[in-house]
């Protein structure tokens, strides 16, 4: 890339200005793609490890040979792309509230997510994930449809949400509505930027028979230290 910085897309949304940027990082000697909401950084292609592990850890407990999966929050596409790498996945429903984010993938603006939009198993649904749970279904063509796994990466964490309207989802009642959309022994997996939250883990155990908080560690070359995210995996 000739330019050191380029804004590839920008849009005003109900939760703030969202933008996709590409910049040349001399420390990494690579192009870095970043998503910002207002002044907040939502995600970066420099640190995709936890987004990838969200799919791997979320699908690992499932024993079936044909899986129907929901990804909540498309972002840079790492979670969805990793889910499609599992040959058991026969359908992938991606629920994304912002049409522009879906368009980034349809326009192939993200080289590391190539093939996601074109894969016949992928279906994009423009919808608010949390409103879909409260309304009883992700698939507008099949209300109440159940899935084998729901992989969620929207908020920073259960305590640090992007919009106050998301908070009720992380309660017992909200998670029970989510569990009703899973097949028996189905999995709910959640990415969090915070360390494991004991209060949220207790909430999970009120709804799901089993739950584990995985700490995903990865190097942060920009800060010269190790960083960590959390992936919660709960099974119905």
Topology:
Elements: E1 5-13, E2 16-25, E3 30-37, E4 40-44, H1 49-59, E5 67-72, H2 78-84, E6 89-96, H3 99-106, E7 122-126, H4 129-135, E8 147-152, H5 172-179, E9 182-192, H6 198-207, E10 210-220, E11 225-235
Parallel strand pairs: 5-6, 5-8, 6-7, 8-9
Antiparallel strand pairs: 1-2, 2-3, 3-4, 9-11, 10-11
What is the terminal separation in angstroms?
47 Å
Number of distinct beta strands = 11
Major sheet details = 7 strands, mixed
Q: How does the overall form come out from the CA principal axes?
A: globular
Strand % is 35-45%
**Contiguous runs where pLDDT drops below 50 for at least 5 residues:** none
Order of helices and strands: EEEEHEHEHEHEHEHEE
The total count of helices amounts to 6
What is the gyration radius calculated from CA atoms?
17 Å
Query: What structural class do helix, strand and pairing data support?
Result: alpha/beta
- The percentage helix is 10-25%
Mean pLDDT across residues: 90
Please tell me about this protein's structure.
With 236 residues, the chain is an alpha/beta fold. It is built from six helices and eleven strands. Strands 7-6-5-8-9-11-10 form a seven-stranded mixed sheet. Helix 1 runs parallel beside helix 2. The termini are far apart.
């Amino acid at each position: 890339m000739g330019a050191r910085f380029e804004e590839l897309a920008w849009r005003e949304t109900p939760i703030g200005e969202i933008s996709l940027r590409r910049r040349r990082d001399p420390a990494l000697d690579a192009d870095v793609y970043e998503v910002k909401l207002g002044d907040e950084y939502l995600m970066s292609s420099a640190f995709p490890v936890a987004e990838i592990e969200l799919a791997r850890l979320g699908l690992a407990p499932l024993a079936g040979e044909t899986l129907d999966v929901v990804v909540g929050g498309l972002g840079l596409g790492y979670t969805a792309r990793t889910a499609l790498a599992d040959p058991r996945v026969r359908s992938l429903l991606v629920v994304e509230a912002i049409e522009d984010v879906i368009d980034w993938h349809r326009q192939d603006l993200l080289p590391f997510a190539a093939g996601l939009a074109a894969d016949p198993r992928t279906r994009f649904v423009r919808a608010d994930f949390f409103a879909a749970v409260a309304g009883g279904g992700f698939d507008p063509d099949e209300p109440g449809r159940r899935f084998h796994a729901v992989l969620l990466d929207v908020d920073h964490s259960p305590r640090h949400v992007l919009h106050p309207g998301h908070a009720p989802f992380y309660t017992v009642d909200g998670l029970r509505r989510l569990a009703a959309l899973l097949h028996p022994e189905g999995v709910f997996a959640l990415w969090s930027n915070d360390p494991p939250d004991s209060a949220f883990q207790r909430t999970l155990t009120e709804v799901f028979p089993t739950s584990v908080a995985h700490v995903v560690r990865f190097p942060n070359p920009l800060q010269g230290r190790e960083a960590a995210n959390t992936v919660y995996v709960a099974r119905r």
